[in-house]
Write a structure and sequence with these properties.
391 residues, 19 strands, transport, transmembrane beta strand, ion transport, mainly beta, 9% helix, two-stranded antiparallel sheet, porin
Length: 391
């Protein structure tokens, strides 16, 4: 009887507790509406709308690994001190790079609003010679051209509204005319300096004719403007199905000198594209010292030796995956550069490039040669093997 009463009492208590809990309101959180990322195809592949805005964003970049060997003078090899006896050795040049890029686009009542950024992170040794001449001390051993984290650089960071662009860019003296071919080492004979802040205006007539006017700050000890007067670059281009004709003129406000380049591009057929470019610059007032810029007397734009220089080359596509690229360059100082490579797209988004480079320095001076290039002899040969995954 006592057991039966106990069971009945326990059951009653459970029912009472359950009833009390059931009386409490059960609140279930309402799911918030999901806002899915929408594709934006107005500006090309890879863009999507930033949620809650009308701005389209694209994120990309690449991961790259370079292996260089050979003479330092062709900008491919490296030197190091032997850890045991301190003698100078040739060694590999290695560099790993991660590059992050962003693009944005948005339509406004004043035209398309765009931005572009590019930041590069590098790890490896230096392309060149050891940073010290005396490896006899322990402290100097750490300067033995060792591999490590190198510079982080902001290569591009500009805003463009309609035709007006402001921010960090590369000089229109190079970008508008199209650089100097599809080889890795395209500056064996240099064709102009690059990094600068800009205020630019682009004009596109829509019929193949385009133009640019760029006010530039320059960069470096010698290239940065020394007053309120900017460097000025102007360019015009005529583009058709057969190719293009482009011309640019630059005014170096520091030295009141002028340099110009003209380029012809010809699309021979679907497989062959050829180009040739000529440059001329004045140098009456150039007085920059050789310790401040390689081969003193060149200014920010006329980077080649002497008054004139020529560059030429092209691309031959064997098939959709494989191409051959070449460039030959020569200037008034009799500096000769030759670069050629084979680029192979092993899978979509990954390219392997093997390049051979040759440099013959016409104006060779043993006492001051390091100011023209980082070589130690008149002629040098080297090569680069590049692996790049772009996304």
């Amino acid at each position: 009887m006592n057991i039966k009463s106990l069971l009945l009492g326990s059951a009653a208590a459970l029912i009472a507790v359950s009833g009390a809990r059931a009386a409490d309101a059960v609140v279930v959180a309402e799911p918030e509406p999901a806002e899915y990322v929408k594709i934006c195809d107005v500006y090309g592949a890879g863009y999507f709308y930033i949620p809650g805005t009308e701005t389209c964003l694209r994120i990309g970049g690449y991961v790259r690994y370079d292996i260089g060997l050979g003479d330092v003078g062709s900008f491919d090899g490296a030197k190091s001190f032997d850890h045991e006896d301190g003698e100078e050795n040739s060694t590999w040049y290695k560099n790993a790079r991660f590059t992050l890029k962003t693009w944005t686009g948005q339509e406004t009542e004043l035209g398309t609003l765009k931005t572009y950024t590019e930041t590069r992170f590098n790890f490896g040794n230096r392309n060149g010679y050891p940073s010290v001449d005396d490896p006899t001390t322990e402290a100097d051993e750490f300067n033995n051209n060792s591999a490590g984290n190198k510079n982080v650089s902001l290569n591009f960071a500009w805003i463009q509204l309609g035709g007006l662009r402001v921010g960090k860019d590369e000089s229109a003296f190079n970008t508008f005319i199209g650089y100097a071919g599809n080889v890795i080492q395209d500056t064996l004979v240099p064709y102009g300096d690059f990094d600068t802040n800009v205020v630019q205006y682009y004009f596109d007539a829509g019929n193949g004719f385009s133009a640019v006017l760029s006010l530039e700050e320059g960069a470096g000890l010698i290239g940065t403007i020394d007053s309120y007067v900017p460097h000025v670059v102007g360019g015009v281009k005529w583009t058709q199905g057969w190719g293009a004709i482009t011309g640019v003129v630059a005014y170096d406000s520091n030295y009141e000198e002028v340099a110009g380049k003209v380029r012809l591009d010809v699309n021979v057929n679907d497989a062959i594209q050829l180009w040739v470019m000529g440059g001329y610059g004045t140098d009456d007032n150039l007085s920059d010292p050789s310790w401040a810029i390689p081969a003193g007397g060149r200014g920010f734009y006329k980077q080649w030796g002497g008054n004139w220089a020529v560059w030429g080359g092209g691309t031959y596509k064997f098939n959709e995956k494989t191409s051959f690229n070449a460039q030959i360059s020569y200037d008034d100082w009799k500096n000769l550069g030759v670069a050629a490579n084979i680029a192979y797209d092993i899978v979509p988004g990954m390219t392997i490039t093997a390049e051979v480079d040759y440099l013959n320095a016409g104006k060779f001076d043993d006492a001051d040669f390091s100011n023209w290039t980082n070589a130690d002899k008149k002629s040098s040969v080297g090569g680069l093997l590049r692996f790049q995954r772009s996304f």
